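To the structural biology subgroup,

Please find below the input and predicted structure for DNA-binding transcriptional regulator, MarR family, which we are adding to the shared reference set this quarter. The sequence is reproduced verbatim from the submission form. If anyone notices a discrepancy with their own records, reply to this email rather than editing the shared folder directly, so we keep one authoritative version.
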Amino acid sequence: MKEATIDYALRATWQAVARMYNEEAKNFDSTMAVGFTLLSIDPKTGTPSTSLGPKMGMEATSLSRILKSMEQKGLILRKPNPKDGRGVLIYLTDFGLEKRNDSKSTVLRFNEAVKNEVTDEKLDSFFEVTDAINKLIADKKLF
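Predicted structure (tokenized):
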């Protein structure tokens, strides 16, 4: 049997996780992207819209579409940034905070399920590998 590449293992696993999260999000009339966005917005101080995309690793166009949808559903509010007259801060509404808590508990349940199946040593190794991959990418040592 051929050995799987690291790239294939990462992609296949992430696609399975994304499918799982999207299936669960349907139970809350949501999507994984909305849940991830809710978790990326500071629940107390809001988050500048310009920092949200880079924080999430998402292109501005995709993020803009998600934010528009979230605003229409009453999950977020956009307010002028008092520190930057051109900027906008994204705040969670009470409904957004409720949905953020749903997203957070889903992520924590996933983490707990994995921790119950994998030893701490293996989990530490997993994070060492992901850190190494991210460092190689950040340091532009791959291509």
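Summary notes: The two ends are 28 Å apart (CA to CA). Residues 34 and 89 are 17 Å apart (CA to CA).

Regards,
Lab coordination
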